[in-house]
Amino acid sequence: MANAKSNLKVLVVGGTGYIGRRIVSASLAQGYPTYVLQRPATEIGLDIEKLQMLLSFKKQGAHLVEGSFSDIQSLVDAVKQVDVVICTMSGVHFRSHNLFLQLKLVEAIKQAGNVKRFLPSEFGLDPARMGHALEPGRVSFDEKMVVRKAIEDANIPFTYVCGASFAGYFAGNLSQMGTLVPPKDRVLIYGDGNTKVSFMDEDDIGSYTIKTIDDPRTLNKTLYLLPPENLLTQRQLVDIWENLVGKKLEKIYLSKEDLLASMKGMDYAGQVGVGHFYHIFYEGSLTNFEIGEEGEEASKLYPEVKYTRMDEYLKIYA
User: Fold this and answer.
1) pTM of the predicted structure, to 2 decimals
2) Which ranges carry the NmrA-like domain (predicted)?
3) Cα 314 to Cα 173: distance, rounded to the nearest angstrom
């Protein structure tokens, strides 16, 4: 539970999304008064899953607060009710890519003037380290940097949470593109398969994110999700799976040249995805740096979070 002195009120924007719902759950679990932005009826329309998820949060004790990105005043009014704002709007192109809407949220936070910490939508590769990224995938990083600049120019206190590949998209499928489940017979290995990658259960991302909000050590810093036991190569991940199922998979090695050539003829979202795979599995962009003054590592700061190891994580897929 959050310590009694901390009654920080937390607003999650994008609370019904893939990472957002984990952050709402973690905020409630850690004892914070938790608010979730609810779009007006005209914007929710007939999206029954979204509405029912909001209602389930309400049953668990969250407060629903209405606001729309087409009405800045409604966002200002929502933000004024809380101390911390966490945005989890999607930045991936095969879902709904809407990172730039965050600029409206930054403007609302600036106008409201009461927010003690803002966590923008990040959670993956650190955009500050991706200035060299490939087209067209670099758009995600460029946009996140525009949002960061707006936050810092407005002197809004922030924490950036970065540095993990989501286990649901990268571990359960042994990092295969275009599927979410492990392959039955043969597995595609990127390069030699020996590049270190940070894998993290999405629930743990939620837990670590909420830990930062009242921590002076993460004020105006980047929290990197690089827990040592989950820094694995793709080969190690495949080994874990083979041991679990008692079967060897045929390995097909994909050179970086062949991966990049595969982008030709793909749709835009596909090209973005391949670019990100290239940076993660060939360059090692999640792990190929030392954390300096700008950041902290999550599992070091919060050893009390018992993060899910990938052997444990993969059991459910077997």
Assistant:
1) 0.95
2) 9-314
3) 9
